[in-house]
From TrEMBL:
<keyword id="KW-0732">Signal</keyword>
<dbReference type="GO" id="GO:0004190">
    <property type="term" value="F:aspartic-type endopeptidase activity"/>
</dbReference>
<protein>
    <recommendedName>
        <fullName>Peptidase A1 domain-containing protein</fullName>
    </recommendedName>
</protein>
<dbReference type="InterPro" id="IPR051708">
    <property type="entry name" value="Plant_Aspart_Prot_A1"/>
</dbReference>
<dbReference type="Pfam" id="PF14541">
    <property type="entry name" value="TAXi_C"/>
</dbReference>
<dbReference type="Pfam" id="PF14543">
    <property type="entry name" value="TAXi_N"/>
</dbReference>
<dbReference type="InterPro" id="IPR032861">
    <property type="entry name" value="TAXi_N"/>
</dbReference>
<dbReference type="GO" id="GO:0005576">
    <property type="term" value="C:extracellular region"/>
</dbReference>
<keyword id="KW-0645">Protease</keyword>
<dbReference type="InterPro" id="IPR033121">
    <property type="entry name" value="PEPTIDASE_A1"/>
</dbReference>
<feature type="signal peptide">
    <location>
        <begin position="1"/>
        <end position="22"/>
    </location>
</feature>
<comment type="similarity">
    <text>Belongs to the peptidase A1 family.</text>
</comment>
<keyword id="KW-0378">Hydrolase</keyword>
<dbReference type="InterPro" id="IPR021109">
    <property type="entry name" value="Peptidase_aspartic_dom_sf"/>
</dbReference>
<feature type="domain" description="Peptidase A1">
    <location>
        <begin position="78"/>
        <end position="412"/>
    </location>
</feature>
<dbReference type="GO" id="GO:0006508">
    <property type="term" value="P:proteolysis"/>
</dbReference>
<dbReference type="InterPro" id="IPR034161">
    <property type="entry name" value="Pepsin-like_plant"/>
</dbReference>
């Protein structure tokens, strides 16, 4: 705990007193990687149900000897492209603001036999190094984990039972900026995964952790990012457009219609907590139980949004009033659905009212599923008795900027598909 605090203070001092660079990287949409995937959105959302709730309820109940990040990376929607090693090898990793460790599938690879997968070969790189057990990243992640060779080993589990295990190492990461320049960062700590669940997509190398801990990728970028990053995610079915992630000065959001709310310190420093004060269906507001604040976190690695149970139930009734239709639960008993004749546009806007007057208006495409073949439309939110989550479906077509020094997050409605470079 003390080591983590000292590293966090050190990073804050660096960010506050160092010149900030700026660069942007490409995010690849899942639909571009899996063009033949015909799985309907409601089916994909149902697959997220258990893991989303696991993440919502996780706080305060994690055994100290285990790392737990209950998401499902193989259902992820956006992948970050960068290169690793010397010479550099291009990789695709799931972008996730709800976890800290960046890990890649490495050789020797126990889960690679009998199938064609993307994998990093550390022995082919002149800059690859394993970390010893007494290194600071190892102490933060696995304080008691040592391999027979005295390298730092790790085990990372997910809420659906999938996992990655391997050794904590360092490498040079290179980003091909959308501005035409390359940005290289040496000695970045990451997990070299030698045994990983076979359920992970073969096209993905691993996961890019963008959480708030000092081991995360955004923290290790240090002065290059200055504690700032932003992204703008294109919708699910838009497989022709490219999303971007900005770091440093390019991540500062300007212009009209920008709203800002405070990032709240929570029990788990991985997550970006905000305070949800209420939810509106159309112009009818439902107050949330904000407590002392920090009752929701923003998560790019979770698709659905989660709101407190009483708010969710009232939302269903108000939506029924607005569209003149009764609601029923989907076959999995998770989502409130409406026989809408295939017209998602008839549904009202949903507004998240965050502290500080930051009202984020979710259009029907952010808050409801696309119609099924039978014309059914469902509210893409779940009920929880735990911590709320603003999932990535609600984040589509918003430019969202995180300022980890100023402790705030900004939202700006944006047509993400119309931007081919830096957003502001």
């Amino acid at each position: 705990m003390l080591a983590n605090l000292l590293i966090s203070l050190f990073l804050l001092l660096i960010w506050s007193h160092s010149p900030t660079s700026a660069f942007s990287v490409q995010l690849i949409h899942r639909a571009a990687l899996f063009p033949n995937d015909s799985t309907h959105l409601i089916d994909r959302l149902s697959a997220h149900t258990r893991v989303a709730l696991a993440r919502s309820h996780r706080f305060g109940r994690i055994p100290p000897s285990a790392i737990d990040a209950p998401i499902t990376p193989h259902y992820a929607e956006h992948f970050m492209r960068f290169s690793i090693g010397t010479p550099p090898v291009s990789v695709l990793a799931v972008m996730d603001t709800g976890s800290d460790l960046t890990w890649l599938r490495c050789t020797p690879c126990a889960d690679c036999f009998g199938r064609d997968v993307h994998v990093f070969h550390p022995t082919a790189s002149s800059t690859y190094e394993t970390l010893p057990c007494d290194s600071e990243p190892c102490k933060l992640l696995e304080p008691d984990a040592c391999s027979r060779s005295q390298n730092c080993s790790y085990q990372y589990g997910y809420g659906d039972g999938s996992f990655t295990t391997g050794v904590i190492s360092t490498e040079t990461l290179t980003f091909d900026s959308t501005e035409g320049k390359q940005v290289s960062i040496p000695h970045v700590a990451f997990g070299c995964g030698h045994n990983n669940s076979r359920s992970f997509d073969a096209e993905m190398f691993g996961l890019a952790g963008l959480g708030g801990q000092s081991i995360s990728l955004v923290s290790q970028l240090g002065p290059l990012a200055g504690g700032r990053f932003s992204y703008c995610l294109t919708p699910f079915r838009d497989n022709t457009s490219t999303s971007f992630m900005n770091f440093g000065g390019d991540a500062v959001i300007h212009g009209e219609n920008v709203v800002t709310t405070a990032l709240v310190e929570g029990g788990d420093k991985t997550f970006y907590f905000v305070t949800l004060q209420g939810v509106s269906v159309g112009n009818q507001r439902i107050n949330a139980n904000a407590g002392r604040g920090g009752n929701m976190f923003i998560d790019s690695g979770t698709t659905v949004s989660l709101v407190e149970n009483s708010v969710w139930k009232r939302m269903g009734d108000l939506i029924s009033e607005a569209v003149g239709l009764p609601h029923r639960l989907d076959p999995g008993g998770t989502f409130m659905c409406y026989e809408a004749g295939g017209l998602r546009e008839r549904f009202p806007d949903i507004t998240f009212h965050f502290a500080g007057g930051a009202d984020v208006v979710l259009k029907p495409t952010n808050a409801f599923t696309e119609p099924t073949a039978e014309g059914t439309v469902c509210l893409a939110m779940q009920a929880t008795n735990g911590t709320g989550i603003m999932g990535n479906l609600a984040q589509h077509n918003f430019h969202i900027g995180y300022d980890l020094v100023g402790r705030k997050v900004a939202f700006k409605p944006t047509d993400c598909s119309s931007h081919l470079g830096v957003l502001s």
